[in-house]
Specification:
Elements lengths: L1 H19 L4 H10 L4 H22 L12 H21 L3 H32 L7 H17 L4 H13 L3 H26 L6 H24 L2 H22 L1
């Protein structure tokens, strides 16, 4: 019972983190490993369990959705679903050791871009006399690559999306957060469909159910909280989460 309670609380924290700014995987995954699941099984199980919580958060955010540049929500979501399916397939086909070694550096890059991306974008725009912006095709290509990463591992993929949109399009973190959780939900659902069929994520149903229940509760609560947070505080929360997860992952590696 103590292990189930630990996983349940980890689910609440992970769901709330994902709703507010991202990073929930770094709570859910270690909790599942701590109760005895292998890293690969824990990765698949956390993705499956976090999907309903992300979907619940996306429902809360549905009226705050704004397009990412000129890319339609349908196109962005389609690319996310396809990329995540490919990434989940890679989990089942390839070892994760070499890729895991790159994750801390990816997180560090994402954190730096989140912190300084909009300033860099404005500075370059002022120096060149024109605004800096990615084309729709570039946004979709980058989103596909992030979705592959999200289906493969998932850690901080939401933070990386915010970073991409911040420096590539100059979109404020608070404005893009609803779209971020919507795309995260699409990535999780796509990867989960494959994990439920081809992985052993269902071999520990009690832990999976506990994490899922906690993630839904945390996702709903976190989304409602994020809607009431001032934009500056929300950006600070996202940056703090990103920086903390980066440091912890470097220490873990």
């Amino acid at each position: 019972m103590s292990e189930i309670l630990l996983v349940l609380l980890a689910g609440v924290a992970a769901g709330a983190l994902n709703a507010v700014g991202g990073g929930g995987t770094f709570v859910a995954l270690p909790a599942l490993v701590a109760v005895g699941l292998s890293p690969v099984t824990a990765n698949a199980s956390s993705t499956v369990a976090l999907a309903p919580g992300a979907l619940a958060s996306a429902w809360v955010y549905r009226r705050q959705l704004t397009p990412v540049g000129t890319v339609s929500t349908t196109s962005l979501t389609t690319v996310s679903v396809i990329g995540a399916g490919l990434g989940a397939g890679l989990v089942l086909a390839l070892p994760a050791v070499s890729f895991a070694a790159a994750v801390p550096w990816l997180l560090a890059f994402a954190t730096l871009v989140l912190a300084f991306g909009r300033r860099v974008s404005r500075a370059v725009g002022a120096a060149t006399g024109r605004s800096v912006g990615m084309t729709s095709r570039a946004v979709l290509i980058c989103q596909f690559l992030l979705a592959v990463y999200g289906g493969y591992f998932g850690g901080a993929v939401g933070i990386m999306m915010l970073a991409l949109w911040s420096i590539g399009l100059g979109i404020d973190t608070a404005v893009s957060n609803p779209m971020r959780i919507t795309q995260f939900a699409a990535i999780c659902l796509s990867a989960s469909a494959l994990f439920l069929i081809a992985s052993d994520a269902l071999d520990s149903p009690l832990f999976l159910a506990a994490l899922l229940a906690g993630a839904v509760a945390g996702g709903l609560a976190g989304a409602h909280l994020a809607l009431r947070l001032p934009a500056r505080l929300l950006r600070g929360t996202v940056l703090t989460t990103a920086a903390t997860m980066t440091v912890l992952y470097f220490l873990r590696s």
